[in-house]
Amino acid sequence: MCNHENDHQHNHKHRKSVINRLARIEGHVRSVKQMAIDERECPDLLLQIAAIRKALDNTAKLILTDHMENCLVGAVHNGNEEQVLQDIKKALDNFIR
Amino acid sequence: MCNHENDHQHNHKHRKSVINRLARIEGHVRSVKQMAIDERECPDLLLQIAAIRKALDNTAKLILTDHMENCLVGAVHNGNEEQVLQDIKKALDNFIR
Questions:
Q1: What is the ipTM of this complex?
Q2: Where are the domains of chain A?
Q3: pLDDT tens string B85-97
Q4: Whether this model's pTM surpasses 0.80
Q5: A5 interface with B at CB cutoff 8 Å
């Protein structure tokens, strides 16, 4: 998950949790799709979509934590943090506008 | 999708689009899960998660549009808009904090 420090990949301690969360989110989206097919009430659909969005944000936070704890720290040790910092800023721009 | 105006259910003109969008989002989440399994780079994962969030928000907007165009307008005609307005406010609270 880190292109700058390939030898550190096994150190992404939240990776399994990220995969599990994405699997749960996938199932959650599938169930909301079924709710839409079943003509369930609009406010119920909106509530579920808000919950999925929150779960996505928490997953993104976990990926970012992994990225900073591993890729960024490793890159600083190797003196090549410029690119990693630029990547993180670009990723953050997509979440915080 | 509207509990207050059951006879208006067939008027949710965006319902098919909502179901299609949710199906695409489901596939998108599945592919990001596979990216995490494949140890893809953190910034790539974050970029995809941001794209999914945006797609979710656009889907929520579509549901809200349907809800206002049908349930709310119908409720106002019948003089029982109080509950529908309260539901919409509650749903919006989850998106705009």
A1: 0.83
A2: 15-95
A3: 887 887 778 776 6
A4: yes
A5: no
